[in-house]
Amino acid sequence: MICLTTSVGTRHVGSRMKCLTAAWTKKNQPLLCRSTSSTNHCNLKHSERLCHISLIGELRNCLCPPNNNNSTTFIRSYSTSTQQPTYSSKCLLGERDRFNAVMVDLTHEGNQQFIADNGYFGNILADSTSKWQKDGTIAIWIRVPIAHSRLIPVAASHGFSLHHTEGNHIYLSRWLLDCPSRLPAYANHQIGVSGFVLNEEKEEVLMIQDKHRIVRWKFPGGLSNFGEDIPDTVVREVWEETGIKTDFQSVLCFRQQHNMPWAFGISDIYVVCRLRPLNFDLNICKDELVDAKWTKVNELLKDPNHTHLTVRVARLIQHGLKYGFDSVDISMEELPSVYKNTTYKLFHKPLPPSL
Fold first, then answer.
1. pLDDT of res. 190
2. pLDDT at 216 (0 to 100)
3. How many domains does the chain have?
4. DSSP β-ladder status, 77-78 and 204-210
């Protein structure tokens, strides 16, 4: 094997051509191509990144033209980027993550040539797995579009297992190390919310009677949509079910319950929020509710048909009405994340003004 070392940047055209010449004269030998730029690849100028990508592409084309049947030639690009493409003339195209696992997306145009025939895909998958395993890759993920679900049994025969589905795609995984798998399980909780819509002047709360659970009155609410913040979910659900517009005030409490019925055995986190009503005339969704009404908070403590959760939240509200809601509220603040250009919501008890 020969190792060609390239410098990234538009200033190194000469060394670039020297690398290409050496690659061409030695093309029957396996080649390792490295970038030795001391600059983080993520911080390179756009033109420099394009130069680097172009160089790797030209090396690949010189050594591995489309009609070349030499299956021993294998090219990989190395850089300091946390996500880098993996190239080979006879290898699936994948993207390496920061954990040293490879994600193969079968919808990628570079992988289309491998998926038309089940047998050919199986051979390419076996070769790719063997090469990545020798490179020290810890795991392989495959994203399979539902239109090509026929490839799932092929992958399963090569040691892959189902991990999860997302829309019209199925994700498969295979752990490559000789130890128990450390791949994370798919999400095992769902998030539900409800709103304690409080009319402080009358000390009344909005209660609903669910069409599918008529025996009890409860707080309006429902499940969070994908990527939806808890405050947005609870405001939306209350509006859809009762026609009451609200302002989010705080989180009062949350419940965790495992083996949730009718939720495919996953666990459930149920968040109860305090809301301030902006209108009071009810307009219920008849597809979901039988009835809705404003109820005195203290009546929730007297009715034995209410759940323990309903009674406990009513007691929290009574305490807040008497001593101030700072004593019971869990506040929310949006803070910048360690991940670039993203934020997150942090929930905690309010800090004293001095802090």
1. 92
2. 82
3. 3
4. unpaired
CATH number for the domain harbouring residue 265: 3.90.79.10
Of 318, 281, 277, the residue nearest 297 (C-alpha):
318
- Of 58, 228, 240, 288, the active-site residue reads 240
- Is 240 an active-site residue? yes
Q: How far apart (Å, rounded) are the C-alpha atoms in residues 181 and 138?
A: 9
Question: Are 217 and 315 found together in one domain?
Answer: yes
Q: Is residue 108 a contact partner of residue 121, using CB atoms and an 8 Å limit?
A: no
- Picking from 66, 90, 114, the residue at the C-terminal end of a domain is 90
Domain presence at residue 355: no
Question: In which residue ranges of the chain is pLDDT below 50?
Answer: 1-88
Nearest CA among 264, 272, 273 for reference residue 189: 264
> What CA–CA distance (Å, rounded) separates 268 from 183?
22
pLDDT of residue 262: 81
The burial of 336, by beta-carbon neighbours within 10 Å (0-12 exposed, 13-18 middle, 19 or more buried), is given as: exposed
What is the per-residue pLDDT across 301-347, written as a single tens digit (0 to 9) for each?
988 889 999 999 999 999 999 999 999 999 999 999 998 899 999 99
Examine residue 195 and state whether it is found in any structural domain, yes or no.
Answer: no
Q: What is the H or E stretch that residue 104 is in?
A: strand 101-105
Say whether both 86 and 113 belong to one domain: no
User: Are 261 and 326 contained in the same domain?
Assistant: yes
Whether 236 and 302 map to the same domain: the answer is yes
Tell me the C-alpha distance between 134 and 86, whole Å. Answer: 14
Pick from 90, 116, 144: which residue ends a domain? 90
Q: Which domain holds residue 117?
A: 91-186
Q: What are phi and psi of 304, to 5 degrees?
A: -70, -10
Buried b (16+ CB within 10 A) or exposed e, 178-188: eeeeebeeeee
| 164 and 273 share one domain | no
Residue where the block lists tokens 């939720």: 263
For the whole model, what pTM was predicted?
Answer: 0.66
